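Just scan this pair:

***
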Amino acid sequence: MATKAYTYTDDDLSTWERIKKAFANDWEQTKADFGSDSSRDMDQDVDDTLKQMSGSDDAFENREQAFRFGYTAQNRFGTEHPTWNDNVDRKLRDEYDGDYEADRAYIQHAYGYRARG
């Protein structure tokens, strides 16, 4: 039994958060591989897990700003422009507070997203 509690550093916690997500995705994939009805197939293999653990995977969190921007733009402009077009592209390019060229595909994807429900 430990006599002194271990104190995690910020680096420890940051690393764990990155690895924890990779483990969570890997666990979901493992359950799906073994036929669990309660898990979803993540279409993930060992390479994907290693990328996530090293932080080199393109995680959702890295694109959340673009997804949020595109989806909310659809809510604002969707009646006038129900589908992506050059006018929407120009309007959003002027409003986006980020690297529009790098995020354009994610913004466009979110603009076209229709919530199920």
The chain has two domains: 10-54, 60-111. The mean pLDDT is 74. The CA atoms of residues 93 and 100 lie 6 Å apart.
